[in-house]
């Protein structure tokens, strides 16, 4: 397959490019320098977005700073909405699009795992813009695919596990929110699921694609640090009210992956296996000589 990855320098995009290349596909990876998705003319003129050049386009580019989105809503609007509209216009009769979205389209009040057609109700600007982006993919393309993921972490970017590790190693006292539950998702694992989806020419529609285990941020932080240090680490648990942020987060955003499994995408590794791999890769990045 010939695949164009947008957002190839990001946390997910960088692992996706590597996975696709290792699987033998011909991959082009674009950052904002190669194609500024907020520039309508640049999208219109981009030859890589035509069917002759690629079979698939995977859009991993997004404005992902959830709290900043509340203060500067025009930034997520440009990239998560306008750019997606322009992209889907260009992709009519072009390569198929697999677009990445988020658990933040839900308000987190359901109390059991969300399925793809559950009612959406984003709580903040980031989730609202991602939802409108989803709607454009559905409305503009006959064969678009949307993967909603959550709590992403990978070695090539800023993520919760990395923040925890760096703060802990710096001797900081960590207090972590214990009343928000979700599914941590390792970028390498998600990249492998995306590769399978492209290779099998997965059917049109929305799929939930998240890690195998639901947990709280507090539980996740303890597991991250215990893996990093290879010893049991216990942290202070706090409530969301004790850690206010500009953007309201869904209290429970566990996504059911039953539809993805039914489509034939094989089961995910455990959180522990993913964290062991993540920590090994992060160690190499932090001390390249070892
Ligand atoms: N992070 C999470 O916890 C999380 C959770 C759920 C869903 N998601 C979704 O998963 C996807 C991947 O997220 P991520 O965390 O891997 O993203 P990320 O690390 O923040 O990477 C964002 C990517 O977008 C590119 N980009 C930014 N502005 C651009 C522009 N104007 N034109 C073209 N490209 C531009 C960046 O390129 P440059 O390097 O050139 O700036 C970068 O490659 C997104 O759709 C996000 O909404 C993320």
Kindly provide the name of the CATH class of the domain at 2-157 and 184-213 and 255-268: Alpha Beta
The residue ranges in which pLDDT falls below 50 over 5 or more consecutive positions are: none
- Share of β-strand residues: 15-25%
**How do the helices and strands follow one another from N- to C-terminus?**
EHEHEHHEHEEHEEEHEEHEHH
CATH superfamily of the domain at 2-157 and 184-213 and 255-268: NAD(P)-binding Rossmann-like Domain
Structural class: alpha/beta
Helix content: 25-40%
The distinct ligands, each listed once, are:
NADP nicotinamide-adenine-dinucleotide phosphate
Rounded mean pLDDT score: 96
What's the CATH architecture name of the domain at 2-157 and 184-213 and 255-268?
A: 3-Layer(aba) Sandwich
The radius of gyration is 19 Å
Quickly count the helices: 10
Number of DSSP-assigned strands: 12
The fold-level CATH name of the domain at 2-157 and 184-213 and 255-268 is Rossmann fold
Tell me the overall shape. globular
For the terminal residues, how far apart are their CA atoms?
Answer: 36 Å
